[in-house]
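Key idea: predict the complex, not the pieces.
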Amino acid sequence: MNLLDSVFIAKASFIGVIFLITLGVAAYSTYFERKIAAFMQDRIGPDRAGPFGILQPLADAVKMFMKEDFIPANSNKWLFIMGPCLSMLTALMTSAVVPFGDTLTLGGVTFDLQGIDVNIGILWVFGIVSLGVYGILIGGWASNNKYSLLGAIRAASQNISYELAMGLSIIAILMMTGSLSTKAIVEAQQNGHWNILYQPMGFIIFLICAFAECNRTPFDLPECETELIGGYHTEYSSMKLGFYLFAEYINMFISGAVMATLYFGGYDYPGVDFVTAQLGATAATLIGMGALIGKALAFVFIFMWVRWTLPRFRYDQLMGLGWSGLIPLAMFNVVVTGLGVLLNQQILVGIGGVVVFIAGIVVYDQLFVKKKLA
Amino acid sequence: MKLSNRTKVVEQGEMTLAERMYLPAIVGGMATTLKHFFSKPVTIRYPEQQRYLGPIYRGHHILKKDEQGAERCTACGLCAVACPAEAISMVAEERKKGEEKLYREEKYAKVYEINMLRCIFCGLCEEACPKEAIFLRHDQMVPVFNSRDEVIYGKDKLVEKMDQRYLREGWK
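Result:
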């Protein structure tokens, strides 16, 4: 009983720590988003609140709480309140299956640095991410505003379209690992056998789909200001708007963590054995946790970098890329991976697949695409 | 008819395969933003940092005194006549005995007022002045005002202080 208690407390405190890290990263993502945008445009960015503007998220939070909490007259009040709550809830639930580190032994008790190690780990991520669109859909519908509704509809169709390609790119990984558990996927990648080496094409597909799933530029059509005012959160104000924006940043961080887990070896880092020998297993595990968070933050930077570089897609371009670009590409990737598993030559077949793909595109271009006579 | 021979006909042909894939363009764009990420910001944090506006910037007005500390203005009114915005007004007064230290000429301006809401900082008062009395200084701007009472600047704000004399580049 005592052991059960201590395991339970350890689990609860670990989940609390993950929760705090996620919220802190999300809060400071807003600050770094503005800083990175400023640097990329040769500006300085927020620098008034505290040294280097480090207290800016705090000031923003105070502002968000102080604003009038407005509910439109003809909106569906309960759904209107439920929308941002649902967005926030699903955003926070995804991190449960991300393995943040190896097992840690403290005071004779061994526990996993992972919320829940379920054997359907990746399916859990997909299920929760699919639920995430309900927050946007409900919020946009309940606002009783045509722009909100249009934004919500766009979000729904975009997320469903890109989930397909995302799922297909994951299938290739599942074929190699033979397990849906995120822990098993990470353990299969230890000692530098990162999936990015075997699955470069799958990673590109997953990355593009992650941009679309997080509603980030160049796929931020659900909230595109030039056409839809604010998209699904046009009618939202105060902390309800804050929840929507916050959920977006949490989703960015979590999708970065998931990408690190699936393609970049999770908590693996070069020199694990050396650190374990020198500093002990506990230190090695904690550094591994830091490595995973560092990889996730690197992805967050890439998200921001792309946002301040690329313009927004047109809606038909978005759908064209998803349905006639990424999904066939992901299917091709599955076939190539299957061939690699069958021949037990995964890297060779992977590279061969990319070469065949590029050659095929060039041949198609030469044979079938009409060209103007020079 | 061609006006010049510099006309260039741009032929926009079919996009090549690489152009239709967009990926090389995206990589190039991201390289550009990354280059700017590491370049120096051009921002000037205004109230703390101030840009040098050049030696002939037309800023805050000043009524000069001469080397002995006597006011140069003789209230001739040429600046008020020259002013296109009619921002300047003055009241002249005859110099009494014993005031030679204070005023350089036999007539001086008892009241000299510039309405800073009307002033357009054209510098024509400076051009018109025969006594080299009024200048628009290059190193200081008229501060922001919050109420209409602060808008009209009298002699208290315009006359040069002897302990902080205004010197322009090239003056002895």
